[in-house]
Amino acid sequence: MKRSTPWLLAVPLLGMLATIPWAQAWMTAHSTPRLQVPEGWPAPRYDFAGNPVTSAGFALGRRLFYDPILSRDGSVACGSCHQQFAAFAHLDHRVSHGIGGVNGKRNTPGLFNLAWQPELMWDGSVHHLELQPVAPMSNPVEMGGSLALAVDKLRRDARYPELFAEAFGSPGVDSQRLLRALAQFTGTLVSADSRYDRFVEGKEAFTPQERDGLDLFRERCASCHREPLFTDFSYRNNGLDAAPRDAGRAVISGRDEDRGRFRVPSLRNIALTAPYMHDGRYDSLEQVLDHYSGGVQPSPTLDPSLAGGVPLSPDQRSALLIFLDTLTDESFIHDRRFAETHD
Fold first, then answer.
1. Class at the top of the CATH hierarchy for domain 54-190
2. Which one, of 71, 109, 104, 62, lies nearest residue 90 by Cα?
3. What is the pLDDT of residues 146-181, one digit of tens each?
C-alpha cells in the first residue's frame, strides 16, 4: 500500500481546522495582513508594489515599531505613544511624551488607514508613508535621535542583521530597509470593520437613534469628515482660538492663510482616541460638541463652514454621539497580528 506524504495529509487537516472557531482565531492571529481595499473605498495612495508585504518583512516592521532601540537612549518606541487599545493613539495624554518624559507639541493621532493618506502629520509635513518615521526619530522631544543613529544601533544589535536578511532576501541593514519594514506594518493597519461598516454592507441594522445620528452627521459634518474614510484630508481652522497658538499648516506652506489650519482627522475609532484636537485640549466628545455648537472662535483663517458654529439640540447631540460610537472597530483594536510580541 502506498503511503501518503505528510503534506498531503496536512491539506485535509487544515481544511477541517478552518471550520473550528478556535482554530480560525489561531490561524487569523498568525497570518500576515495584506492591504485589501474595502468595497466602495478609493484607491490607496501608498503603492505596495514597490514594497510587497512578506511574513518576514511584516514581522520585522512590527518588532521595530515596538522596540525602543529606535530612540536615542533606548527608552521610547513608536508603540509607546501609539497604543493598540486606543486605535494606536495615546489615551489620556494631551500631547506626545518623548525621551526623558519631555512633552511634545501636538496630540498623538491614531494610526490606521495610513495607506490612503496623501500627507501625514497634523500639518502635512510628511508626503510619503515610508518617510513618516523619520520625523519622530529625529525630533528632539520625541525619540531624540536620527535615522542614521537608528541604523547604526540596528547593525550592532545581535538579532537584527539576521532579521533584515530574512525580510529582504540578502544581508544588509540600511535606512531604506528600516523604513520599508515599518511601512509594511503601519501600512497594513486597516480599520474597516466597525458597526457602521457592517451597516453600510447590509450586514447589521442601526437603531432609530443611530440612524438619526448618521443622517445628522451627513447633514452637518460630512463636508469635512467624508465617508468612508471620515476625512477629506484637507487642512482647516476649526475655530479653537481667535489668535492661533500653533501656526499649523503655515509652518510648512509659508502662507499666512494657512495659519491655524490642521489636517482634518478621521473620525473612525473616535470614541477611543481621547483627548481631542491637535493640542489635546478636550477630554471628551461632549466637550468637542460644546465647542462646535457654541465655542467656535472667529479668526481670519476660520473655515467658512464653521461661521456661526454648528448648533445642536440635546436630542441631536445624543443621536450624534451614539452614531460616533458605531465607528469603533473592535476587531482592529483586538487584532493580535498588530500587537506587541515577546519572541
1. mainly alpha
2. 109
3. 999 999 999 999 999 999 999 999 999 999 999 999
Question: Domain boundaries in the chain?
Answer: 54-190, 195-327
Q: How far is CA 116 from CA 140, 185, 197, 274, in A?
A: 28, 14, 17, 23
Helices 175-186 and 147-156, packing angle to 10 deg: 100
Residues pairing with 89 in the sheet? 83
Domain 195-327 -> CATH class: mainly alpha
Contacts of 236 (CB under 8 A, 6+ apart): 224, 261, 262, 264, 303
Q: At 137, list the grid cell.
A: 526619530
Whether the bond into 265 is cis, omega within 30 of 0: no
> Rounded to an integer, what distance in angstroms lies between the CA atom of residue 99 and that of residue 293?
38
Residues 67-94 have a mean pLDDT of 96
* pTM as predicted: 0.90
